[in-house]
Amino acid sequence: MHWIIVPVVLPAMLAPIIGFVMRWDMPLARTASVAGTVALVAVALGLTAVAAGGETHVYRVGDWPAPFGIVLVLDRLSALMVLLTAVLALIVLIHAIATGWDARGKHFHALFQFQLMGVCGAFLTGDVFNLFVFFEVLLIASYGLMIHAGGRARMRAGLQYVVMNLAGSTLFLFALGTLYASTGTLNIADLAAKLPDMPPEEAALVRVAAMLLMIVFAVKAALFPVQFWLPATYANAPAPVAALFAIMTKVGAYAIIRIHTVAFGPGIPGTEDLAGTWLFPAAIVTIAVGAFGVLGARRLMPLIAFSVVGSMGTLLVAVAAFSPVATTAALYYMVHSTFAAACLFLIADLVVTRRGGDALSAVPATAQNGLFAALFFAAAIAMAGMPPLSGFLGKLLVLDALRAPETLPWAWSAVLIGSLLTIVGFARAGSTLFWTSTAVPLPAAEPGTAQSDVAPPNARAAEVAPVMVGLAALFGLAVFAGPLASYLEDTSAQIFDRAGYIASVLQPGEEG
Q1: What is the pLDDT of residues 113-123, one digit of tens each?
Q2: Is there a domain that residue 365 lies in?
Q3: 329 within some domain
Q4: pLDDT at site 405
């Protein structure tokens, strides 16, 4: 099964070729980047089909057995996340090319491929140290993409983003050192096998390591109280980059699901109450921060960024239950929120470039105002969780999974009130952008200038198509919610089958 390593190797090989050979030839770089991303989608589809059988496949690099060698692990969860990454990347890449964003810097496509390498590697790795390595690849590539096309505000936001993530990386190293000192391993399956038998005197160190890892993953997932980097970063990043970053917060959520279910799950001394004590309350507050941020935003890009914060809170409220039913709901909502956030950022790009800014104030309506209003309305109701799109079903699944007496009042109140505030915020923004603006006349054309030269240009079909595809994905998630939920139920059952994961990874085989 050498195909397991292809999602990491393919962009890793393509990025330097584009960066060193094709950077002066934009059409060639675009062709190579699109071809590589299409190939990644095809490989991800194949891996998803392989993983659908329910078996955990292990790729042992250099044929070294775990836990001594590097392993990549393919199961339903990792296959789903790689496929989600590949499809999102293709949508964003086509938008960046169609709108010309990629041509504003020579290294966009190389950095884009390095970003895909880091994300796919984080989803496939079978040990915590290589998760750290792929996190660092993500950080470097995302910083380059964040400051793409320059600008003072973008550089300032990029600096804040890097400082915050470097602090997270430092904590990550502390956690790895503590964990290795107490267990002698960083392989996830080996940790899961050893931690239940840890002596009581070592349990405190294990708890410290687990708590540090939770903080690190919370930084990546923009969880309260370390969520403040996300609104400024996403609001100032190029819109296609912000759309791609929709998957980056999901890396943090994935890491929490994987590490704190397999390695630090029930039966592990000192870590059993970690999720309920820290993760659940933080997720509740994150929903509130996101909802009030949406309600109070005065610019379109920060409004969307705060909606991403709120969606991560909803996702992690379900993750914090650490049960198969809640995890199924969390995975469905994870897929939905990724596409919803990406669609909003891509629509914002089409609108902002024609308005000349993202301030939520009345200016002359852009060309194709009705089209943009319809696209924004569809993406907004998806993000807010209104029927008939997948956001409503996602939040319904989350609420249904959180009916325990100790969680129901907090979770239901936070999700429902947060959704209401988000709806009000998006309604206010949409009204200003697409309704009030129609009453503002276009400025008078100067003598010798045609009125058509004053009006913003129409969006070409290639610019609108990626948004349409993203919205179609949200519609498909709602239409095929039954089969997808069935697949995700099997995925959750596999996630919580700790014995099966340990046996697949630690048992010598011939896959590598």
Answers
A1: 999 999 999 99
A2: yes
A3: yes
A4: 80
Tokens of 365: 């309506």
For CA atoms 23, 24, 28, 34, the dihedral sign is: positive
For 416, the domain range is 273-381+388-441+464-471
Whole-number CA gyration radius for the chain:
23
Largest interatomic CA distance in the chain: 85
Length of the chain (residues): 512
Instruction: Give a yes or no: residue 15 inside a domain.
Output: no
Q: Is 53 inside a domain boundary?
A: no
413 in helix, strand or coil?
helix
| DSSP-derived 3-state class of residue 444 | coil
Helix or strand or coil: residue 367? coil
Confidence of residue 448 (pLDDT cuts 50, 70, 90): low
Please choose, from the candidates 435, 456, 440, the residue with its C-alpha nearest in 3D space to the C-alpha of residue 353. 456
Tokens 């294990």 — which residue?
Answer: 206
In the chain, % of residues over pLDDT 70: 92
Count the domains in the chain.
1
3-state secondary structure of 244: helix
Among 381, 376, 386, 351, which residue's Cα sits nearest to residue 366? 351
pLDDT in tens, 145-171: 888 766 777 777 777 778 888 888 888
Whether 320 and 275 have beta carbons less than 8 Å apart is answered as yes
